[in-house]
Amino acid sequence: MKQAIYGLILYIFLILPPVANLLESIMIIHMHMQMPLLVFSGFLMGRYVITRFSSFFEKWNSNGIPGILLFVIIWSYWMVPRAMDEALTLQSVEMFKFISLPFLAGIPLRDSWKKLHAIGKDILFIYFISMLILMAWIYIGADDQICNNYLIVEQKTLGWGSLALAACVLLYLLQLLFTDQSEYQ
Amino acid sequence: MEQPLKETIRQNPKKILGVNPDDAKVALAYLSVSFVSLLIGGILGLLQGLERAGLMQLPSWLNYYQVLTAHGVLLLLVFTATFTIGYQYANLSHSFGGLLAKVRKLAWIGFGLMIIGVVMVATMIILNEASVLYTFYPPLAAHPVFYIGLVFVVLGIWSCCFGVFINYRHWRKNHPGQPTPILAFFAMGVFVLWLFASVGVTIEVLTLIPWSMGIIETTNVMVGRTLFWWFGHTLVNIWYLVATSAWYVIVPKIIGGHHFKEKLIRLVVILLVILNIPGGFHHQIIDPAISIPIKYLHVFMSLAIAVPSLMTAFAMFAVFERTGRKLGGKGLFGWLKKLPWGDVRFLAPMIAMISFIPGGAGGIVNTSNQLNQVIHNTMWVVGHFHVTVGMSVVMTFFGICYWLIPYLAKRVLTPKMSKIGVIQTIIWTIGMTIMAGSMHIAGLFGDPRRTSDTSYGGHEIAASWMSYELIFGIGATFLMIAVIIQVYAVFNMMFFAPKGHTEFPVAEPEEGEEPAPMWTERWGLWIVLLLAVVAMAYVVPIADMIMNAPPGSPPIKTW
With an 8 Å Cβ cutoff, are B176 and A183 in contact? Predict the structure, then answer.
């Protein structure tokens, strides 16, 4: 249960206005640090939620696929440049971000991950890699400003950062494929 | 119960046969180079101390900046690197029951490459073609041979890195379901960090070679500095990781105790490996081309190292207290008296650990934006790294010598040599305390670093630094005496001490302790996390520095 408390503390810390403002002031930190940390806080809080409402998760997410689909939808939505822009301009969208990422992405991810078959996990990794590469292509390639709130140089930085993360996930996937994971159980 | 001889031979041949002579040669070769570097670097340090104190004038053919560059390169790069490799390879050989033949070959190749590199670098410094200080970032430009020499040094280190990875993998494959011995786990952490730390500096040096040759006209100074500190700060933490391997695993055995929970020790290694590299940004707090929010976020990255450091402090003192009480220590602090203060193998690393308290506190000052503005270009910084490196790290290294070298040379540590070691430790502690202490104070009063003459035409503020500078000179003299004793002790133990068997002191876990969890062995995951942290930390400033780059700087030779 400690994990859930740490998750809640992290969540409260992240939604504090000065912290949120600082993290949102840099485009790549907004997308690749604040958002994953919100998901992570939900992931930690999931420990409590999943035990507390086990029958709900068993009923609606018995094989992990609905949960992971919800995660993918929420995550993909927040990768859209306009969504980031609106989070900065409209208070309601900002609130939606703080609710959707931990509770509709973090918690379902935790519940689904252990239920998914190896193939499902591989598909998720491939989704991550292709999503990051697509973003790299868009953000590095676009000559126009995609987000009203961020400069072009920040946009390109986000593109390069996405490419680097895609490389990291690819590397992780490759080492999963080429090493015997039962060694580490 | 005593293990039957047959099983001991099968499972732990070292216990009967001692070190493999071929492996010992590798380690001793590296350690010899290390202590020769210490001697030369130490002499150069003394020269600087005396010059700064105004007690002597260097001859016209040897200037302050040449001496400063050579002192830094020899001690911070060569001494520490060769010691680390010698010690870690000895640990690996001991933990795995001998190195693989191909790994030994890689270590020798590394040795050759590093020697070639160091000779090239040193020659250029002696010829006064490379007085660029040990940080060697642009716009100061050295002779191309200096940079090419550095490439050889890095290739040597990489060769040793791959040696460790190959041997580690080989052991893992042959011991399914078993966690690797803890010292080997440390070695893996050290060399993983080294490999990825050196990527930054390699890119920097490879861009500086054509620039110093005149093939390209300008270089991006900010990118160069950033890539240097990617490496420079990580190097500091590599030494620290090497020192902690002795604190966690060796020191408890010497005091007659057990090591702390292996799960925590491994977690500390993993955290140090993952979080380390972006710490380099606090060296650039006053650099103009990095935005304030990024600097602010990087304070967290630098201070993240405090988490494993505090875990270490807690674990070590828990081990000391537990052992002291087991030995009969009573009361709140009575257990302290039971620790073997007269044993140099304990005394030196213990003082090293204690000095990490002021060292760490000073580090927090350096990392904090506002405080850093006060001390950045002053002697404070020099004092800081003389405490952290010169005490926390180097005194641990010295303490290691007193069992490692006799063990490798199949000789013994005589009581007389142990006493010499204690005296050396005391002289070194006095020297470093007064020198680094006065450097800190002089720095607070504004005494600049990296400057040969700070009289400023006799200005009264500059004059107020003089008394502290005299103390630098006195401290440096103590240190030189300690260096001579240490180098004598090392070579005496290597070649002249009585023959015999010395134990390799590896602490065992407490009884009933669970084995280390296997998830800690997921090096693939740790490396990917390290890379992701580096990518996130560096992409913003580097993209900014490249996309909003100024015209760039031509090579500048100020001497």
Answer: yes
Mean pLDDT of chain B: 92
* Domain tally, chain A: 1
DSSP B411: B
Which residues of chain A have a CB within 8 Å of the CB of B539? 28, 157, 160-161, 164
Yes or no, beta carbons of B519 and A33 under 8 Å apart:
no
The per-residue pLDDT for range B74-97, each reduced to its tens digit, is 999 999 999 999 999 999 999 998
- Looking at residue A131, its pLDDT comes to 94
Q: For residues A82 and A99, give the distance between their C-alpha atoms in angstroms, rounded to a whole number.
A: 18
C-alpha distance from A129 to closest chain B C-alpha (Å): 13
Helix axes B292-303, A17-24, angle to 10 degrees: 110
Report the chain A residue with the minimal C-alpha distance to residue B518.
A184
Percentage of chain B modeled with pLDDT above 70 = 97
Question: Could you read off the pLDDT of B350-379 as tens digits, one per residue?
Answer: 999 999 999 999 998 998 888 999 999 999
* Residue of chain A minimizing CA distance to B542: A157
Contacts with A, B 268-327, CB within 8 Å: 293-294, 296-297
Smallest CA-to-CA distance from B102 within B182, B167, B40 is with B167
Q: Say how many C-beta atoms besides its own lie within 10 A of residue A35's C-beta.
A: 22
Q: Mean of the pLDDT values across residues B178-201?
A: 95
**Minimal Cβ distance to A164: which of B518, B535, B547:** B535
Q: What is the tens place of the pLDDT at every residue in B123-145?
A: 999 999 999 999 999 999 999 99
B209 by DSSP, 3-state: which?
Answer: helix
Decide which of B198 and B293 is more confident. Answer: B198
Q: What is the per-residue pLDDT across A142-157, written as a single tens digit (0 to 9) for each?
A: 989 988 999 999 999 9
| A32–chain B Cβ distance below 8 A for any pair | yes
Annotate B75-123 with DSSP letters as a single string: IIIIIHHHHHHHHHHHHHHHHHTS--HHHHHHHHHHHHHHHHHHHHHHH
- Unique residue bearing structure tokens 């502290």: B468
**Residue B325 and residue B335: Cα distance in Å, rounded?**
5
Assigned token pair, B156? 């040597």
Residue range B480-505: mean pLDDT, rounded:
95
Three-state SS for B448? strand
Helix (H, G, I), strand (E, B) or coil at B292: helix
Cβ B544–A153 below 8 Å, yes or no? Answer: yes
User: Cα B335 from chain centroid?
Assistant: 30
Report yes or no: B519 at the A interface, CB cutoff 8 Å.
yes
Q: Quick check: A14 contacting B, CB < 8 Å?
A: no
Note whether A171 contacts B528, CB cutoff 8 Å: yes
Return the structure tokens found at B211.
């620039």
Closest residue of chain B to A31, computed from CA coordinates = B536
Q: Give A110-123 pLDDT, tens digit per residue.
A: 999 999 998 999 99
The ipTM value here is 0.90
Q: Does A19 reach chain B within 8 Å, measured CB to CB?
A: no
Determine the residue of chain B that is closest to A177 in CA distance.
Answer: B524
**Main-chain phi, psi angles of B394, to 5 degrees:** -65, -35
Domains identified in chain B and CATH numbers: 19-510+525-547 (1.20.210.10)
* Cβ partners under 8 Å of residue A142, min gap 6: A155
Q: Is the pLDDT score of B1 beyond 50?
A: no
Query: By the 8 A CB rule, do B378 and B448 touch?
Result: yes
CB neighbourhood size of B540 (10 A):
25
The pLDDT confidence band at residue A185, using thresholds 50, 70 and 90, is confident
Residue found by looking up tokens 């996309």 in the block: B547
Handedness of CA B477, B479, B485, B491 (dihedral sign): negative
Residue A120 is part of which domain span? 2-184
Query: For residue B249, which of B261, B240, B238, B237 has the smallest C-alpha distance?
Result: B261
d(CA A51, CA A47): 6
